[in-house]
Amino acid sequence: MGDLILKIIIGSLLAFCLLFYGGVSMELGIFPSQYIKKPVETAGAVRKLFEIDNYNDLTRWVGHVPKDTGLIRNTQTQDTYTLYTSTHDTIARLLDHNGEVIHNWTLKFNEAWTDTSHIISLFKLTDFYFYLRDFHLYDNGDIVLMVSAAGITPWGAGLVKLDKYSNVLWTYSGYVNNDFDVGTDGTLYTIEHRLRETGFKAVPDQPLPFLEDNIVLLNKSGEKIKMISLIDALENSSYSTVLERINDNICTDPTHSNSIKYIKETNPSIPWMKEGYLLISVRNLNTMVVLDPHSEEIVYAMGLPSRMQHDIDLTSQGTLMLFDNQGDTAGEEHTRIIEFDPETQKILWTWDKDAQGDELLSNFWGAQERYENGHTFILNPEKGQFFELDNNNNVIWAYTTPLYRIIKEEARIPSITSAKRFPSSQLNF
C-alpha cells in the first residue's frame, strides 16, 4: 500500500513537471512547443465552444438598462429616418423621426443558409446565436446585412441581401467581419478572415495558424470577384515596416482590420485620396492603410493618433474622423471621437460624452458620421444609444434601444452594432 502511494506521489510530481515545462516551452518557443502548440490551441477552441452561452451573455448584452429608453431627445425639425442593428437579434429596425419602428427586415439564418457547413461549431447553432453587424440600405428597400455569431472562430457568418419584404435575394458564405462598403458601381468591399498556415518575413515569430485579414470584392449578385491578402499587400509595399508593429501585439489575430470605406471623390492635393481607393482601419496596429483594389497595391499608410480605433471616415472637407476607443486621456474613461488633418495629424475636433453628458466609454465597436451641414451622428454601442450633435455640439436628437435580455436576473441592454440616418425623402419604398 505504501509503495502504491509513493508511486502516485511520484507520478503526480512528474505530471506537474511535464505540464510546467510544457507551459514554459510554449511561452519561450523551445522544444517541444512545436508539437504541443496545436493540441493546446484545439483544446482551447473546444473549451470556448462549450462556453458559447456564457460568451454570448458577456459580449452581446453589455450594459445596464437605463432609466429612459426609446426617444430621449428630439429638437430637430427635419423629417429623418434612422436604421439600426444590434447584438440582440437578426432584425434591422427603421425608426421614424419620433423613434417609432415603422419598418424592419427580419433574417432567419438557418433558412437563408440551407448549407451552414462554413460555421465551425460543435453543434448546429440556432438562430439565437446570430446577430447583425453592419448593413447597406438601398433606396428601393433592398438591404445587405452582415451576419455574425459570438463564440465561434472565425466569427463572421456571411453577407445576405434581402428585399424590403425580407425575402432572400442572395447569400455569401464567408468569414466577413466588422465592416463593408458599396462602391459607386455597386461593387461590395468587405473584410474577410481566413486561417493562414504560412508565416511572413516581417514577423518570423508570428504564431501559426492565425486569422488573416483579406479584402474581398463582390459583384452586385454577391459573387466573389477577388480576394486580396492585406498582409501580403503591405509586405510588398513601401510601407512594409508597418507590419513590425505586430511585434508589440503577437497574437492569433495580429491586424484585426475593422473599417473599410470606399473613397468616392478624388482630392487633387492629396495623392492617396483618389476615387475608388479603399480606406482601411487596422485596429491592432493603430494604423490606416489605403488600398488600390484594382492594382492590389498599398498606396499609402500611416500611424493614427488613436488606440484600438474603429470606423475611420473621410469627410467632405478632406479631414479624417475616427472612433478612438482607448485613446482618450482627459477623463476617467478612455473613449473619444476625433477629427484630424490627415497631413499634419493635428486634432481639429474631439468629443467624449454620451447623449446625457456622461463620459463616453466603448471598449468594443463604435461609429460616427459627419453630415454635409456639419452635424455629427454618433453611435455609442455599449449604452445601446445613438444621437446627433448640431454645429454647436448640442444634442438635438437621441435614442436608446428599448431591447434587453435578462442575464442572471438582471436586465441588460444589447450593443448597437451599426446605425445610420436618412432623409425621409431618400427612401422611395
Short description:
With 429 residues, the chain is mostly beta strands. The protein has 5 helices and 28 strands.
Note the topology.
Elements: H1 2-28, H2 33-50, H3 52-60, E1 61-64, E2 70-74, E3 80-86, E4 91-95, E5 101-106, H4 109-112, E6 130-137, E7 143-149, E8 156-162, E9 168-172, E10 176-182, E11 188-196, E12 210-218, E13 224-229, H5 230-235, E14 257-262, E15 278-282, E16 287-292, E17 297-303, E18 310-314, E19 320-324, E20 336-340, E21 347-351, E22 367-370, E23 376-380, E24 385-389, E25 395-400, E26 405-407, E27 410-414, E28 416-423
Antiparallel strand pairs: 1-27, 2-25, 3-4, 3-28, 4-5, 6-7, 7-8, 8-9, 10-11, 11-12, 12-13, 14-15, 15-16, 16-17, 18-19, 19-20, 20-21, 22-23, 23-24, 24-25, 26-27
Helix pairs in contact: 1-2
CATH class: Mainly Beta
CATH architecture: 7 Propeller
CATH homologous superfamily assignment: YVTN repeat-like/Quinoprotein amine dehydrogenase
Q: Describe the biggest sheet? A: 5 strands, antiparallel
Describe the protein's architecture and organization.
The protein is mainly beta and about 425 residues long. The protein has one domain (about 65-425): YVTN repeat-like/Quinoprotein amine dehydrogenase (Methylamine Dehydrogenase, Chain H). Helix content is about 15%, strand content about 40%. The protein has 5 helices and 28 strands. The protein has helices at about 1-30, 35-50, 50-60, 110, 230-235, and strands at about 60-65, 70-75, 80-85, 90-95, 100-105, 130-135, 145-150, 155-160, 170, 175-180, 190-195, 210-220, 225-230, 255-260, 280, 285-290, 295-305, 310-315, 320-325, 335-340, 345-350, 365-370, 375-380, 385-390, 395-400, 405, 410-415, 415-425. A 5-stranded antiparallel beta sheet has the order 2-25-24-23-22, with no helix packed on it. Strands 5-4-3-28 form a 4-stranded antiparallel beta sheet, with no helix packed on it. Helix 1 (about 1-30) crosses helix 2.
